[in-house]
């Protein structure tokens, strides 16, 4: 899909919709500063000097309650989003002919500025529409704006039965904030119609892209900061490319079907299905033992626990449809079966869940023209908090014993979902509470004449329903979970992740991967798209171990960094696991890092699937990854490389590898060496004690730099006056920046140093005595001083760069990765003096120019004339 028009339209549309509903609110006396008052008399309510029917006062009161509870700006943003969703949905339906009356509501098929429905207003028969009023307004001829508003709201009411999650019931308070001026040439509706060409609406995928771009500016506002609960959706939403969605769905649900029915014609329809590698007899026997002999399509289930705008579930709908048709079901029967029995979705964002429901209903409507009349009940939920649920009051107002319940059951349910919109699908339902869910559901379906009890029962229903979805187990789980490092998590979310997902607390995606596995049935499958950092980084080592030990990694694709847009740098991978460990299984891996750009990724994936000998499809046994320290998913490593890790020493056996000083603010504490007065610099302090008594303020500091090997990049000095007194006590005014003087016992010692961040090859340099080192100039210290030269030679060898491609194929070379580099078993016997000439040549080159504090004169001036 060409997204240029959507990307240009949606961010501006968000601003325009928010401004329009804010203006409409002000018209009703609602602003950020005050909510005003309403004077009522008989059937009339007076608001800001204007008379309205008394029903408007009740709707306005609901708005006031939301504003006082959630804040004015947040309510305006939510209302703007709701109307944007509704108008986009109507636009899609009118272009596909899904509106029962057959007329366009937002546009005209002949391109006229007046919507077609206005021409046929007297022929429209919406439930509850006052036809007399319509005729009156139509005949008057000058009140088209009022008539159109009446028709548009009636259309929304008519769609309520089929899609109550998107189109609320009659007289919902949101209709008060339907913007004014809908027939103007610059109205929100005209902008929607004219900004996006009709052909772009052919695929339901447009709904997801509009959602992605609509929230893009909000995402930019909150990204890179500690994220509030209400901003988590904007900070973490990322629309999954269609080809990755196809890969995940086809290699999870599709692979399960083909495992049972290997001759199924479905294989020809799944273009991103990766044929499993040839397995050993032992593995085939294990697979045969766990593969069911038959499958009932009506019993297969798939959930997306972070469904966003529903892209994954829409793709799964198509695959379920193909499965049903293969089994001989009638096509018109499929939508209700699939939507009610097979597909499930959860999200913390109500508007996203609305779009998911809408997208699924549109898929179903394409196959069943009467779907809207069938009362389909979707299994898609936006999680809700339980703060307003009166568990204690309900326990007193009903006979819980009649349902086999105790007051503590209601209290536990409320506690579980107290922060549901923050923790989302990471919430795990305790087994004891899960056993009480049938009784709780039965209770929620009872009625009461007591208004307070009736309200509590109404609130109980959604809590029970979301608990049921979270407690259930599914044949397939497919998701693009939220990405958020723990430094951006709120204290509440950080504590929850730490308490419940200790092995994966460093990032929300890792915790989600671990949590989502609990949704999968034994021998079921899970397909995920995540950052690829879990494959290699030490911070994810525990998670990696648990995944490989308890599951079978069946396939994985590692795209190039620009898999989404050529302008977006997103390091991701996508993979499929089976929830059972099959020892010796040979998995398939596609490595796309050599192919730049979003367009190349699906093309090269299809090439690899069609031609396994292409050169970028690999087969490896995940069990073999444990031969490499930390079990990185080094699937392209040769057997010789893997054996090097298991048969040789590593750097940690002969050296200590350390991260160094973090000043808290380099602009204060670090300078280029030529900036301070040279008499304040001590270039060769042999120890911290000497540095402290020298009286000097500035000392050399290894801090990365340009690509250099063996020697050099001595450019930075750091304030270490009085043993770093200022740095060691530093904290920024906000408290967010603090110093961390790590590894002080290694300061001023001779070492091997390197650039922590580098887009090129890994290189090392000798750091003479007298240097401090910071976190970007991490260093390794030989346990025996005489072996420093040998350490330099080993780390400087091209083999180190090769090994790091498997230990840490990112832009970062951390101390943990360096410590795991294999070195010769005969390390103690290496001739350390061989490093001398290499260092001398590099030092002469460094000192030949004024960048060096040891510079004497230019080589050109001292060159021999002979």
Descriptive account of the structure:
With 866 residues, the protein is α/β, with parallel strands linked by helices. The strands form six sheets. A nine-stranded mixed beta sheet has the order 6-5-4-7-8-10-9-11-12, with helices on both faces. α1 (4-27) runs antiparallel to α7 (188-195), α1 packs across α8 (205-214) and α15 (311-326) packs parallel to α17. The chain starts with a helix and ends with a helix.
Q: Which structural traits does this protein have?
A:
single chain; 866 residues; alpha/beta; nine-stranded mixed β-sheet; 35 helices; 42% helix
How would you concisely characterize the structure shown here?
The protein is an alpha/beta fold. The protein has 35 helices and 24 strands. A hairpin with a 2-residue loop joins β2 and β3.
SSE layout:
Layout: H1 4-27, E1 38-41, E2 44-47, E3 50-53, H2 54-70, H3 72-96, H4 116-119, H5 131-140, H6 144-158, H7 188-195, H8 205-214, H9 216-222, H10 232-236, H11 242-250, H12 253-260, H13 266-269, H14 281-290, E4 302-304, H15 311-326, H16 334-342, E5 343-347, H17 350-367, E6 380-382, H18 391-397, H19 407-416, H20 420-423, H21 431-444, H22 451-471, E7 474-479, H23 491-500, H24 508-516, E8 520-531, H25 541-550, E9 552-558, E10 572-578, E11 587-591, H26 600-610, E12 617-620, H27 639-647, E13 649-650, E14 655-658, E15 661-662, H28 666-669, E16 670-672, H29 688-693, E17 698-702, E18 716-719, H30 721-728, E19 740-741, E20 751-754, E21 764-767, E22 772-773, E23 779-782, H31 788-796, H32 798-807, H33 815-819, E24 822-823, H34 835-847, H35 859-862
Parallel strand pairs: 4-5, 4-7, 5-6, 7-8, 9-11, 17-22
Antiparallel strand pairs: 1-2, 2-3, 8-10, 9-10, 11-12, 13-24, 14-23, 15-19, 16-18, 17-18, 20-21, 20-23
